[in-house]
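INTERNAL TRANSFER SHEET
From: sequence group
To: structure group
Subject: D-ala D-alanine ligase

Please process the attached sequence and return the structure record in the designated field. Keep the field labels unchanged so the import script can parse them.
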Amino acid sequence: MKFLIICDYRENFVDYSRANTNKMYNDHPSQKNITEIMDAIKSLGYNCDYFGGIPELIHAIDTNQSFDDSIFLNFSDGMDEDYSRIQAPALLEILNVPYSGSGVFPSALMNNKHFCKKALLNLGIRMPKSCIVNHDFPLNCAQLRKWKYPLFVKPNCEGSSLGISNDCVCHTIDEVIKKCNKLLMDFQEIIIEEYVEGIDVTNYLIGNNASYYINSIVTAKLFDESSYAIYGINEKQNKLRTLFIDDEYIPTNLVEAIKRQSILIAQTLGVHDICRIDYRVNVSKQEFDFIEINSAPRFSSTSEIGFIAQKNNILFSKMVQYYLTTVLDRLT
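Return from structure group:
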């Protein structure tokens, strides 16, 4: 049996970096990241090759290729079109091959922050009030004037904090209009939310059903402690934060409540194998709001998963083993 890795390398896409460094930044894994994963897989005794990305999958379909005794590991964020994270699952379904990660519809739902929240309304979980703005659904200023300010304006279908900066926090309707118009120049759809006071927390899950190898909370405390500071593209790229795991920063009861809710969300949405769920946590009020879920989170020794491994005194290759075991348990 062979693992075939699907990934469209960061180096082949637009660089959104805001720093004067040689490091690229966008919503795709780097070639170095994929090499690290492949080396870990091979060190575990598995056969593994890099297959390619979306163009190679299309070519495989066009040429009627078959892949016996192979499992595709999907680390692709797709190309730069809207709903890019759906591309790999859809093409892998057409190829009729087993693959890691969530299927087409769950990936589509998770890719849309606004409608993902709509799908979870019956769970009774806390989440900020939101609406979308695009060319078919224009800004409704009369409605938004009645909302609680500040509001938070950001792209609806992007990851890695693309399009997010401190001026996404809007204190007046005029600021909302200005920010929406600016973002719509680069992104097809915008989400507007009531701003949630608190700290950024992410819950990383590796596993399926009630069996999870990893269910860990990572809190990001920003260096910028000013009011309405945002974990935006600059902060993420340049790691302008201190990370804490589980109850190092937030109380144990909140950690356990978030973990339980994350499993409920993952199961409700039909997540397979891996996801990352983001929250805003207000420690003083003992409250946490669901913000979004990522169906294809970064998997590297320098991302949250690497931090979790470090804090648990385990090698990155062990995290890769957890992931492979999760995939194999589901598919074989």
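Handover comment: DSSP finds eleven helices and twelve strands in the chain. The mean pLDDT is 91.
Transfer complete.
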